[in-house]
Amino acid sequence: MDTPLRPVASTTEPFALDPHHEARTAISPTLGMHQVAWPFMPLVIGDLDEFIDRWATWLAQAANGRLAHPSHMPERNPQGSWRR
């Protein structure tokens, strides 16, 4: 997500970043232009039910025109989900 200090409105949040310096600064302890909006979550083969349900729900909502912008950002607390 964009940092709340940045006066930019985005129609897509959260959004993906390519693996380059902007993505690196999103997880750095310094203040950057982007922040992590979801925790990093491991994908475990054989235990993908929550992941599949979440994405299937989002895709169904989008197909029916009911996918809404998140009510707040970050959507889930990402703190501590990656190594520093």
Level of helix content?
25-40%
- In sequence order, what are the helices and strands, one letter per element? HH
- Estimate the strand proportion: under 5%
Contiguous runs where pLDDT drops below 50 for at least 5 residues: none
Provide the residue-averaged pLDDT: 82
> What's the count of strands?
0
User: How far from one another are the termini?
Assistant: 19 Å
Principal-axis shape equals globular
Largest sheet: none
**What is the helix tally?**
2
Radius of gyration: 14 Å
Oligomer: single chain
Give an overview in words.
This protein is 25% helix and 0% strand. The chain contains two helices and no strands. The chain has helices at 21-26, 49-63.
SSE blueprint:
Layout (H helix, E strand, L loop, with lengths): L20 H6 L22 H15 L21
Q: Quick gist of this model?
A:
This protein is mainly alpha-helical and 84 residues long. It is built from two helices and no strands.
What are the main properties of this structure?
2 helices; mainly alpha
